[in-house]
């Protein structure tokens, strides 16, 4: 499932033209995988198919909605306690370490499904992994690595939209990649998988929140080039038709 981020047009009506009632935001997670190169820092992105009704032809980061089983998946390492606590900050309706873990695992599962890249560590015994959603990790003998993840941002879709998500944006360095795809990989939900530099990414067709998060990343790298666990994370909290920017 592709990363559910706020669209460029902010759809407020459904297919039948009716305005939606109140929708509780669904937990979602996406990830920015960063690669240091001589030409600058590059980030993994993909383009949504032009035929899609939701954000057609837009470039996005891999990610999607949290599945109920995500929080129970096996991992080679757990979240840094600082990152875990920041994920739980202002979590509604009730903060939960298991839910924070599920968000992180969701980002890694969706990345594997959509791009074929596995963030993790080699693991010889994954026989206990029976959920088919995690088959790419099981088959490659790779266990997800949560300890490498950092929280970059959080954004909640404003009320009145036909889809609402409480999206967390993680960031990780490319040296955490345990397996890269050989050729075309993924489910087809993303096309033209590419590694643009941050400046090149800013010139692509992007959803508004994606562009904002790229700017947040640039600012974070200036203040915290190592992307430490305690680095600041931006919280886009909707108030009416605008966002209030807070820090987690």
Automatic annotation (TrEMBL):
SUPFAM superfamilies: Nudix (SSF55811). Residues 1-21 are annotated as: Disordered. Coiled coil: none annotated. Its cofactor is Mn(2+); Mg(2+). One of its GO terms (molecular function) is hydrolase activity, acting on acid anhydrides, in phosphorus-containing anhydrides. Keywords: Hydrolase, Magnesium, Manganese, Metal-binding. PROSITE patterns: NUDIX (PS51462). CDD domains: NUDIX_AcylCoAdiphos_Nudt19. Residues 24-219 form the Nudix hydrolase domain. This is NUDIX domain protein. It comes from Hartmannibacter diazotrophicus. The lineage of its organism: Bacteria, Pseudomonadati, Pseudomonadota, Alphaproteobacteria, Hyphomicrobiales.
């Amino acid at each position: 499932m592709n990363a559910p981020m706020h669209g460029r047009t902010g759809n407020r009506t459904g297919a039948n033209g009716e305005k939606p009632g109140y929708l509780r935001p669904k937990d979602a997670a996406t990830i920015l995988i960063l690669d240091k190169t001589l030409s600058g820092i590059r980030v993994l992105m993909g383009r949504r198919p032009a035929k899609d009704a939701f954000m057609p032809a837009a470039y996005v980061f891999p990610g999607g909605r949290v599945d109920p089983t995500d929080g129970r998946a096996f991992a080679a390492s757990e979240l840094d306690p600082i990152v875990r606590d920041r994920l739980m900050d202002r979590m509604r309706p009730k903060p939960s370490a298991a839910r924070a873990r599920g968000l992180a695992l969701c980002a890694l599962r969706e990345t594997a499904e959509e791009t074929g890249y596995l963030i993790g560590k080699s693991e010889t015994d994954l026989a206990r992994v029976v959920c088919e959603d995690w088959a790419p990790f099981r088959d490659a003998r790779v266990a997800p690595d949560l300890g490498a993840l950092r929280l970059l941002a959080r954004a909640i879709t404003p009320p009145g939209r036909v889809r609402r998500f409480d999206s967390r944006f993680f960031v990780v360095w490319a040296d955490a990649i345990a397996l890269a795809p050989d050729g075309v990989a993924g489910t087809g939900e993303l096309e033209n998988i590419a590694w643009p530099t941050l400046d090149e990414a800013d010139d692509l067709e992007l959803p508004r929140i994606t562009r904002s998060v790229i700017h947040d990343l640039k600012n974070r790298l200036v203040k915290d080039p190592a992307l430490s666990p305690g680095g600041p994370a931006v919280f886009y909290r909707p108030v009416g038709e605008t966002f209030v920017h807070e820090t987690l």
